[in-house]
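Human: For the file, kindly provide a plain-text protein record giving the amino acid sequence and the backbone structure tokens, at your earliest convenience.
Assistant:
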Amino acid sequence: MSSFSYQNQKKPKGFFFRICIFPFLYLTLASCNFKNKDLNQNELLINLSLINIVSNHLSATELQAVVREKIGILPNQIPGSEVDTLEKISLGKKLFRDNKLSSNHVQSCHTCHPLDGNSAGMDRQSTSRGTFGQIGKRNTPTILNVGFLPIIFWDGRRDTLYNQAIDPFVNPLEMSLPSDTELLNRIQNDSSYNSFFANAFPESPNPNIDSIRLALVAFERSLVSKSRFDDFVESNVQALKKDEMDGLKLFLEVGCNNCHTNNLLGGSQFSKLDSKYSYNPNDFGRSEFTGNPADNFFFKVPPLRNVALTPPYFHDGSVSSLKEAVKRMNQYNLNRNINDSEIELIVSFLKSLSDKTKSN
């Protein structure tokens, strides 16, 4: 049996850094545990991994563990979709794409939220135009993964898809119907809907506002978007390229995920608008819904999934470049001047969040 020679073994990159610094870090963090009983062993390991991000010695497997802890895994199904039948989804899709449900029969939900081809659920306009050419107030968000969101619209005026479902039809800046009664009348008078409602709601086949809402919700809950980033987090540590992993490390290191939280990387909180740049001064954001002046210029932090496919950026669509958006957020929210190479790395990571069926 040959003897084992430690000196003859090839040392991995960062080996001596780990050997020297990890015991010190572990003892330091462990000593904190005597003061903080809530810090468990798993948290210590995660903290060690996060410190290791800064040193850039984190392996793909270690990075995967950190991401699972700090961001999480996106489910394959949206909560509530277990009751959505194929018939309800089919009806919802028909409603979503029907131009006849706008005031002058020229626009549908799909007009501003296109899904065909490389489109990722928004029209890439700064602000969308309504059925009579009226200019909308805010940038159209992607509809992909919308069923996971706890906050709907930039000002958070809706908290469920069900409550939101009818709004675009009766919004004067969008499809401009005078009322939900008019929406219902148009559907009831269109015989092409008869079989769709009968199949989707056999116990109550006559169209009503509730069934319209439920069908639209079913369709929107079917729009789950998965990316190579999801492959990486779920199982395949080779799913991301080196520059994408480096960008992910930097994203975590500088604190982007403090606002862009959870498995959607955003969409669950509000943030105040940066006053350094010129945005629409007449849009007061969340306060227009709450009536509270303290909410002036607060907007929902958007989820970053498919962000490379959905320019322009921010609530008013005033920034066309993803690089510029990353730069601004680092300067304002993180109070950090980021260099061009760092921007490139973060953008590389953000592109890995794009739906696998579409190209950046």
Observations:
- The domain at 226-352 is CATH 1.10.760.10 (Cytochrome Bc1 Complex; Chain D, domain 2).
